[in-house]
Design brief:
4 helices, 17 strands, Chitinase A, domain 3, seven-stranded antiparallel β-sheet
């Protein structure tokens, strides 16, 4: 369901392996070598770094250097952090990405070596908030032997990262706020041991309406979710009026995505923006705000979808 909900976004460009050709040969110096000494980085944390190339990078060792040691909390595995990232191609000696180019808006990352590649993981785990970390990575510890075509990184190109750790993000364990009384004709949430397992539609209309329906179950006591934020949620989705639960995250790990920008289905964008962190809401989403006449995977065409969503963080 995560792939059904989420469309291709910036983080997938950075942290997914995508097909790529061989290393490019323009402006590179294949005879030069170097690890950390191949680059010099100056500038303040929170501002775009100035990177000077002393040579191309060809060291097969993953090297890190804490350029600025922050005085904030230590980052541990499983934490969510807000970071700014600069990426350079160690072969062509060119910048290929910088979050500072879009106004310095940080990216939200879960520090989990099962979700992000090793070079980024070692830049974060064990470091402190406020730090700037330089990483020089061989291909295998960055984008792998396929490289990243979107970032113009070949399959044998070394990669340089400058990572600014801006803050840790508090992620709730579950909904937190005031319970709400749903209308009697709303789908009834079924739980086992306090964990959602599905919906009971016996008291609901046999034919759902054609408009998005939002049913608050818990009014969160956190801040409102706004367009463009990265949110972390737990969810369960079921085809309306059936026993088909097509996916859920409660037995796995919470799901993070950008909201209000088209990275998810329209029903999520419209239904979750404006809610507050800590909320639990039911969304009854008509087909035109979900997957339409074609459906998706096990979801049939023209299906109305019913979700319960716990909003655990927004940043």
């Amino acid at each position: 369901m995560r792939r059904l909900i989420a469309l291709l976004g910036l983080l997938s460009l950075l942290f997914s392996l995508v097909a790529c050709g061989d290393s490019s040969d323009d402006n590179g110096d294949s005879g030069a070598s170097g690890g950390l000494e191949a680059v010099s980085v100056t500038g303040d944390v929170g501002k775009a770094p100035k990177v000077t190339w002393n040579s191309a990078v060809s060291s097969d060792k993953l090297d890190t250097d804490v350029l600025v040691a922050g005085d904030g909390d230590e980052v541990a595995k499983g934490d969510q952090v807000s970071v700014n990232i600069w990426i350079g191609n160690g072969f062509t000696k060119k910048q290929v990405f910088s979050s500072y180019d879009k106004g310095g808006a940080p990216e939200t990352i879960t520090v989990d070596d099962a979700q992000i590649f090793k070079a980024l993981y070692v830049a974060l785990e064990g470091q402190t908030v406020g730090s700037r970390v330089l990483v020089v990575s061989p291909p295998a510890d960055a984008f792998g032997d396929q490289g990243n075509a979107t970032l113009s990184i070949g399959n044998t190109d070394h990669v340089v990262f400058v990572v600014d750790i801006m803050k840790k993000i508090v992620v709730l364990d579950g909904p937190q706020g005031a319970e709400q009384t749903p209308p009697p004709n709303a789908p009834k949430l079924v739980e086992k041991g306090g964990v959602p397992t599905g919906f009971d539609f016996s008291a609901s209309a046999k034919k759902p309406g054609t408009k998005l329906r939002i049913v608050p179950l818990i009014k969160g006591d956190g801040d409102k979710v706004t367009n463009g934020q990265n949110i972390t949620v737990n969810y369960l989705g079921q085809v309306y009026g059936t026993k088909t639960v097509f996916d859920e995250s409660f037995s796995k790990t919470p799901f993070s995505t950008t909201i209000g920008t088209g990275s998810v289905i329209k029903g999520w964008d419209q239904g979750l923006v404006g809610q507050t962190v800590g909320s639990r809401v039911i969304l009854v989403i008509p087909p035109d705000l979900a997957y339409g006449p074609k459906g998706q995977g096990t979801i049939p065409g023209n299906a109305t979808l019913t979700f319960v969503v716990d909003i655990l963080s927004a940043s």
